[in-house]
Write a structure and sequence with these properties.
The chain folds into two domains: 99 residues, 3-Layer(aba) Sandwich (Rossmann fold), CATH 3.40.50.2000; 180 residues, 3-Layer(aba) Sandwich (Rossmann fold). Helices cover 41% and strands 13% of the residues. It contains 15 helices and ten strands.
Length: 353
Amino acid sequence: MTYDNSFSASEIPFPTRVGHNFKTLTKNRLRNFLRFARKITRYHFEAWNFQVYNLKELTKDLSIIHSADFWYPYTAQAVKTGIPTIVTEWENIPFNFEQLPYRKIKKYNRQHVAHFVAITEKAKEALELEGVDAERISVIPAGIDCDHFNPKEKDFRIIEKFNLSMDSRKVLFVGRLVPEKGIFILLKAFASLIKETGDVELLIVGSGSEKTRIKIARYMAALRIGDKVKFLGSIKYCEMPEIHNLADIFCLPSLETKTWAEQFGYSMVEAMSCGKPVVSTWTGSIPEVVKHRETGILVKPNDSDELCFALEELLVNNKERHAYGGNAREWVLKRFEANDIANQLADIYRKYV
């Protein structure tokens, strides 16, 4: 990892090695200049921030390198070490990231990566469309610790900590506070839901830019739902099972853009592992993760009315909600259980050791 990694390594139970990238070496002093240069040249200079300086030295004693998506410059660096490099591929939009220097990096990595692990069938399809042979691709989803994320009674200490209602039904959203995660369409649907069902709270876990938070606050004020929406902020991963178990329903109404579609939706798997039904959208790779009318309900993206109806249906129909929640737990145990996923990855590693 690099020194500016956005995720804390404190919960990773094994040693980590850290290197500099261009951003940390220059202390980000050239940010504005690089943005200006990009506008003139159309070359994405931020790619330099996706290189790990001294990577060859950091990895010289390793037998295998496992990297992320093949458009990343550090994946090309890994390949060039000569150590067999396995790449997990999340990207499900073919021919995305075609600007320079990414186009050349992708071409090189397509030819030299030892094996690709596609998180979804849609990611595999994108790889094949870009020219990767199917024999070099395995479809293995992300795994989850189902012992850690499991159904539990509500923790009333957390309810008191965040000043939540003891008795109200709760809808949970977990994700980045950005428009493509559907946060604004969820707030609109929730405003209608309150009128139909009354005593319900919306819990929001995640962080975003100050600009987006201001927009959200203004939108909530216009909808007059501020007292029913609770922002819990960023929560440590080890504490997320307790948060999921506060909820009756999990909702992630993702939208698609020209350059992004939901690649997996890990928070939905966490929720299902805790026995919660999911309401989401027919976008990206979500239909591979959530089984419509079995583990939850999928609706058209950017449709607040349909989203409201789905949430209301599950809140009102206790039998259906509990059935979907039970199915969700079974589906995760069957498809996403961490030990099973680890064994599948280990089988690939053994081919290259």
